[in-house]
Amino acid sequence: MIMVASSSDTGAAGRPHDEDDLLLARVAAGDAAAFGRLVDRHGERALAVATRMLGSRADAEDAVQDVFTRLWAGAAARWRPGGARFGTWLWRAVANRCLDQLRRPRMGELTDAIDPPDPSPGALERLERDRVLRQVTDAIQTLPERQRMAIALVYDAGLNGAEAAEAMGVSAGAMEQLLVRARRSLRTGLRPLMDEEDKGGA
């Protein structure tokens, strides 16, 4: 069966925030298809933000699932069109959920299984790429929580400075300072890696 968009959906095609409002109204009425559409529109970026903050995709999936479950369970019913944008609520909800998880006492972590060596061509290049990615991820994990949140919102969610500031509830100037400090710390923490790459390219 071919689905034909309603006039309201068609009119909102060029205005993503308006489309979010329409979808939220339908979610509040129990429309599972509209909920799925919201997840499709925002789920991947929300997962990227949570993964950056938590350093674990499995933990990030749990966090994002909790946020969307809360949306389905009742948050959408309290939504008021024309108020805060859905994206602002979502990034703040994801970030706060991640912060809550980071502040919980951590149980002993399972040791990752050791995979056998991969003899295929390009395996060494993939291992090197994974090593570099892990070092960058580890460096980001050492940042203070709010700096890590700022990095995740700007670089993983793709928000501009003003949008990230709104999501975090801070001024644009405060957001810029968070990013400046985070970048400075990352440059310092990743200096050995950058020196290593400079030597390798010499």
TrEMBL record:
<dbReference type="Pfam" id="PF08281">
    <property type="entry name" value="Sigma70_r4_2"/>
</dbReference>
<dbReference type="InterPro" id="IPR014284">
    <property type="entry name" value="RNA_pol_sigma-70_dom"/>
</dbReference>
<feature type="domain" description="RNA polymerase sigma factor 70 region 4 type 2">
    <location>
        <begin position="134"/>
        <end position="186"/>
    </location>
</feature>
<keyword id="KW-0614">Plasmid</keyword>
<dbReference type="InterPro" id="IPR039425">
    <property type="entry name" value="RNA_pol_sigma-70-like"/>
</dbReference>
<dbReference type="InterPro" id="IPR036388">
    <property type="entry name" value="WH-like_DNA-bd_sf"/>
</dbReference>
<keyword id="KW-0805">Transcription regulation</keyword>
<dbReference type="GO" id="GO:0006352">
    <property type="term" value="P:DNA-templated transcription initiation"/>
</dbReference>
<keyword id="KW-0731">Sigma factor</keyword>
<dbReference type="InterPro" id="IPR007627">
    <property type="entry name" value="RNA_pol_sigma70_r2"/>
</dbReference>
<dbReference type="GO" id="GO:0016987">
    <property type="term" value="F:sigma factor activity"/>
</dbReference>
<comment type="similarity">
    <text>Belongs to the sigma-70 factor family. ECF subfamily.</text>
</comment>
<keyword id="KW-0804">Transcription</keyword>
<dbReference type="Pfam" id="PF04542">
    <property type="entry name" value="Sigma70_r2"/>
</dbReference>
<feature type="domain" description="RNA polymerase sigma-70 region 2">
    <location>
        <begin position="38"/>
        <end position="104"/>
    </location>
</feature>
<dbReference type="GO" id="GO:0003677">
    <property type="term" value="F:DNA binding"/>
</dbReference>
<dbReference type="InterPro" id="IPR013325">
    <property type="entry name" value="RNA_pol_sigma_r2"/>
</dbReference>
<dbReference type="InterPro" id="IPR013324">
    <property type="entry name" value="RNA_pol_sigma_r3/r4-like"/>
</dbReference>
<protein>
    <submittedName>
        <fullName>RNA polymerase sigma factor</fullName>
    </submittedName>
</protein>
<keyword id="KW-0238">DNA-binding</keyword>
<dbReference type="InterPro" id="IPR013249">
    <property type="entry name" value="RNA_pol_sigma70_r4_t2"/>
</dbReference>
